[in-house]
Amino acid sequence: MSRFHFQFENPSYVREKNFVSIKNTLDSSKHIYFIGIGGIGLSALARLYKESGKLVSGSDINKSTITDSLETLDIHIFSPQSISNIDQAIKYNGQIDCVIYSPAVLESNCELSYFLNQGIPVFSYGNGLSYFINTSNSITICGTHGKSSTTAILSEILIESSRQIKNCDLKNKNKDHGSSYLKLEKINVSFLCGAILNKYKVNSHIAGGETNIFFAEACEYKETFLNYFPKASIIPSLEIDHLDYYKKEANYLKAFIAFIEQIKDGFLIMRLETKEEITLYLFALLSKNIKKLVTYSSDKFNILLKKIRFEIEENFILKSLITDLKDIEISSKIICHFHYDYNVNRPFELKINKEFIYNLKNKFFLSKNAGNLYDLARSLEKFFIENIDNPDLSLFVLKNKLNEEYFISSKADINAFDRENIEIADKDFFEISFPTKEYAANFTAVYLFFLFSGYLNKTTKSMFKEYHGIKRRFELVGFDNNDNIIISDYAHHPSEIRTLINIAKTKYPQRDIVLIFQAHQHSRTRLFLKDFLSLFKDIENLILLPIYEQRDTATDKKLMPSELFYKKVKKVNEFALFFDDVDLLFEYIKNKNSNVFLFAGAGSIDSFARSYFAKYGSTQKK
C-alpha cells in the first residue's frame, strides 16, 4: 500500500494553480448547493455566497436554529438528506452549477455520491472559502485554540470603531484626526467565524464598498488552510492536535511551516510560548517569505530566549525539521516582540510592553554550520542580546497626544513631527471584557494587528472592553430554579477545558463549579488521554458523558470506549461520575444549589444544556 501523501509535500504553486480552476468555476456558477449546510462552518460559507449574489440551497440531516437563520435569507434548505432534495432545489433555483460539502460529510452520502456520478463540480469547504480569502484583502486566523475568539474580537472591534467614526457628527470631528481615523472611516469589514458572534447573531458577513478587509478563521484539520493565500495571518496558539489525520507531531508542524510560506504580504503575528510555537517561530524567522514577524508572550524576552535555546538543542521534532536547512540566516524583515502582563487579581485589565522592534535591512547570518544546532542556539541568543538597543535597527511605538493614535517609527523620525505632541508609547494599558490569561493573549494579538496595520487609536482601544463574545464560548444559557448557572462551551481539548474552568472560577468565585464533559471523538480521547487524566485529577465536581462519535473507525471505538475512559478517569479522581442517560443526569444536577454547570464539548452537549434549561430553567430574570 502506498504512503499517504500530504498537501504540504507539494510546492505551493501547485495549490495556486488549482485555485485558478476553482475560481473560474465558482465565478461562473449561479446556483450552489451545500451538503451539510447546518454545520457552523458551511452555514457561514453559504451566507457569504448568498450575500455576494449567488443562488444558494442545501441540505442537512436535521433542521436547527442555524438553518432557520439561513432560511430568512431565502436559502432553501432540505432535511433529511435524500436524492429528492436535488430536484426540489432545481425547482426553486434552476440548474445546480456546483456543490460545496462539509468536512463531516462522507463520500457515501447519497447526495454527494449523486453529484460525483453526474460529473457536477464538487468542492470541499476549504475550496469554497478560498474563493473569498484568495481574492480579497484577507487576514486568516489559524492555530489550535483561540481562532474563533480572535476572529470575533477583530471583526467586532473594527466594525464598531468604523461605525462610531462614520456616525460622528461632521461638525464635531477633530480636524487633527490622523490616518488611522481616516482608514476606519473608509473601511468595510467582512468576516467568517467558526462561532456565532453575540453582537450580530451571525457567523459571517460580506460588506459592500471598495475598501474592504476580510477576517477569516482558517482550520488546519486535513490541511484545509493550505487552500488559502491570505495577505496576513494571526496564530493565537499552537499545540499538537488532529493526530487522527496528521499521524505524527512533525507532520502537524510541517503543515503550518508550509502555510506561512503562502502569506502573500509576509505579515505574521503569533504567540510565542509553547514548544510548537517556538518551533514555528524559528522557521518564520528564517523564512524569506515572512517580511514582518510580530510575536508576543507572557514571558519577557530574556526568559523566552532560554526557552528558545532549549528547544533548539533538545526538541527532537525541531531537530528533525531543521536539519534540512542549508542557510542559517535572517533575511531582511521587521521582527519584534511584545510582552503582555495579565494579573489574575485584576482580571479585566491588560498591560502590553514593547520589548524590541528591529528593522533588519540586511541579511544576518546566525551560523556557518547548518548542522550544528548548538551553534545556532548560541548565535541566535547572541544576536538578540547584542542588538537589543541598537539605534540603527530599532523602531519605536509612538503616540500622537492630540488625537491619541499610535504608529511605528524610528526614534530619529520623531524630529519630523511636532515633538511636543509626540511621545514614545512602548508601554500601554487598557481594559478587556473577558478574563483569563488566554483571553488576554487573544486581545494582545488583536491590539498588535491594529498597531501594525494603522488602526490603533483611542476609539479602537475603547472597544476592547465592549466586546460581546461568541456563542458556545462561556455562553450563559440561563439559571435553573435552584439558582444554578447553566453555561455552554465548545471546549473539548484539555487546554481549552482548563481555560474554561479558570474563567468560571474568576467570574463566580463563590460558587462550586461542576464540569459536565462530553469527549469529542474516540480517537482524540485516546490520543490525549494522558492530558485529560492530568487535568481531571484535580476537578472536584466532574461528570462524564458517553464519548461523541465523529469520524471514528470501529478500531477507534474499540480502543477507547466510553466505559474505559471513565474507568481510567476514576482511577485518578474517585469522585468522578458517569451518566449514559441524559434524563438521569438532569435528575442528579437539578438538586444542587447555586452551582455553575459547565456543559463542555464539541458534540451534542450544547443541546443537553438547552434541554436542561427548557425543563428546569427559571422564568425569573437574573
Give a short summary of the structure.
The chain has 622 residues and is of the alpha/beta class. The protein has a ten-stranded mixed beta sheet, with helices on both faces.
Protein traits:
alpha/beta, ten-stranded mixed β-sheet, six-stranded mixed β-sheet, 23 helices, 39% helix
How does this model look, in words?
The chain is an alpha/beta fold and 622 residues long. It has 23 helices and 26 strands. Helices cover 39% and strands 22% of the residues. It has a ten-stranded mixed β-sheet with strand order 8-7-9-6-10-11-12-14-15-20, with helices on both faces. Helix 1 (12-28) packs across helix 6 (125-133), helix 7 packs across helix 15 and helix 10 (249-260) runs parallel beside helix 11. The mean pLDDT is 89.
Give the SSE map.
Layout: H1 12-28, E1 31-35, H2 40-51, E2 55-59, H3 65-71, E3 76-78, H4 84-93, E4 98-101, H5 110-118, E5 122-124, H6 125-133, E6 138-141, H7 147-166, H8 179-186, E7 188-197, E8 202-205, E9 212-217, E10 232-235, H9 243-246, H10 249-260, E11 267-271, H11 275-286, E12 292-297, H12 301-314, H13 316-322, E13 329-330, E14 333-341, E15 349-360, E16 364-365, H14 373-387, E17 396-400, E18 405-409, E19 422-424, E20 427-431, H15 437-453, H16 458-462, E21 475-479, E22 485-489, H17 494-507, E23 513-520, H18 522-527, H19 529-536, E24 542-548, H20 554-559, H21 562-572, E25 577-578, H22 582-589, E26 596-600, H23 605-616
Parallel strand pairs: 1-2, 1-4, 2-3, 4-5, 6-9, 6-10, 7-9, 10-11, 11-12, 12-14, 22-26, 23-24, 23-26, 24-25
Antiparallel strand pairs: 7-8, 13-16, 14-15, 15-20, 17-18, 17-19, 21-22
